[in-house]
Specification:
This protein has 333 residues and is an alpha/beta fold. The chain has helices at residues 40-47, 69-73, 91-101, 106-119, 135-147, 165-179, 191-197, 215-221, 236-243, 275-284, 299-307, 314-332; strands at residues 2-11, 14-24, 29-33, 55-60, 63-64, 76-79, 153-157, 183-187, 200-205, 208-213, 227-232, 249-255, 262-268, 289-295. The protein has a six-stranded mixed β-sheet, with helices on both faces. It has a four-stranded antiparallel β-sheet with strand order 2-1-4-5. The protein has a four-stranded antiparallel β-sheet with strand order 12-13-11-14, with helices on one face. β7, α6 and β8 form a beta-alpha-beta unit. It is elongated. The chain starts with a strand and ends with a helix.
Length: 333
């Protein structure tokens, strides 16, 4: 288990991490999201002992990362955004060196390095110098050193950077495999990857935690802001005139590209299903609809909503707090 308590990191007058607190349980894959400059990498560096905190504490299975660094770090495998590689070593030399640093007994070292090479699929380049590898292979070597020793907690900062689509799929499968016996914390700018792999997502903005929940629940938070999407040959003015009397509409966005049909995004109030009303309105006007479908909220919508504004909508905060309180209450029964 990882506990981050009231974490603060300041660089002069700049606050990179602002009283951040959260708790991560064993056996899950956590997605750690935030825009550039939000404090993700700084938080991960503090969690792994690479940086000191201005205030607060990080506990790794009860061990304070600053007061008991050896005991805490022994339980962490870390892949930074830029892998810590020695370019003039071969892959095998580097991994054996990493195994020695992690205290793996000499008699087990050879077999474990071989096992991990096979796991991350770098066995075929083990005798090549790291400086001669592609970016994708270097990333795999960095991942291999993080996995070395099979620590309880894996912290991976942008693990799929530089990988081709096939390699990304393989890394996702590896992460899922690791999660069966380890806690995995994954930071990525690829929202589809996080949604595909992670059980739980934490979103930070300006150094603060703004949401913490499953991907499905985060989408439901803004579900009431879903709506309807239509395509029609009608002009923008006619579209607005037809939709004006339809109840349940909060806003209308019209996109028209030259001679192509207009694409209309209709945001509804409180998640109302207004498809039939929209259909009847256009039928009454004698204008056909080329498409008519619901337009739900995606993880990308949630991310943009939570990180682009100065403050998080109160309704979202209340929903997160209520869900957390309910989970804690259920756990105490």
């Amino acid at each position: 288990m990882i506990e981050v308590r009231n974490l603060v990191k300041k660089y002069g007058d700049h606050i990179a991490v602002d009283h951040l607190s959260f708790q991560l349980e064993a056996g899950r894959i956590y997605g750690f999201l935030g825009p550039n400059g939000a404090g993700k990498s700084t938080t991960m560096n503090i969690m792994t002992g690479y940086l000191g905190a201005t205030e607060g504490e990080v506990l790794i299975n009860g061990h304070d990362i600053l007061k008991e660094p050896e005991a805490a770090k022994r339980q962490i495998g870390y892949l930074p955004e830029i892998p810590p590689l020695y370019m003039d070593m071969t892959v095998r030399e580097y991994l054996e060196f990493a195994a020695e640093l992690k205290g793996i007994p000499a008699k087990k070292r050879k077999d474990e390095v071989t096992e991990i090479e096979k796991m991350v699929k770098i066995r075929d380049v083990e005798h090549r110098l790291i400086k001669n590898l592609s970016k994708g292979y270097r990333q795999r070597v960095g991942l291999a050193q993080a996995v070395m020793g099979f620590p309880e907690i894996m912290i991976l900062d942008e693990p799929s950077v530089g990988l081709d689509p096939k390699q990304i799929i393989e890394i996702r499968e590896l992460i899922r495999k690791l999660a069966k016996n380890h806690t995995v914390i994954l930071s990525s700018h690829i929202l589809a990857e996080v949604q595909e792999v992670c059980d739980y997502i934490l979103i930070i903005s300006k150094g603060r935690l703004v949401a913490s929940d499953t991907p499905e629940n985060l989408e439901l938070m803004l579900g009431s802001r879903g709506g309807v999407e239509i395509e029609t040959e009608a002009s923008p003015s006619d579209i607005r005139l037809i939709l004006k009397p339809v109840p349940g509409i909060e806003s209308i966005e019209i996109q028209r590209d030259g001679e192509h049909p207009a694409r209309v995004y209709i945001r509804t109030k409180q998640g109302e299903d207004i498809r039939e009303r929209v259909f009847r309105a256009f039928a009454a006007a004698g204008i056909p609809l080329l498409t008519l479908k619901t337009s739900g909220t995606s993880l990308e919508d949630v991310f943009m909503e939570l990180t682009q504004k100065e403050s998080v909508p109160d309704a979202l905060i209340r929903q997160t707090v209520k869900r957390k309180e309910a989970e804690e209450h259920a756990g105490s029964l």
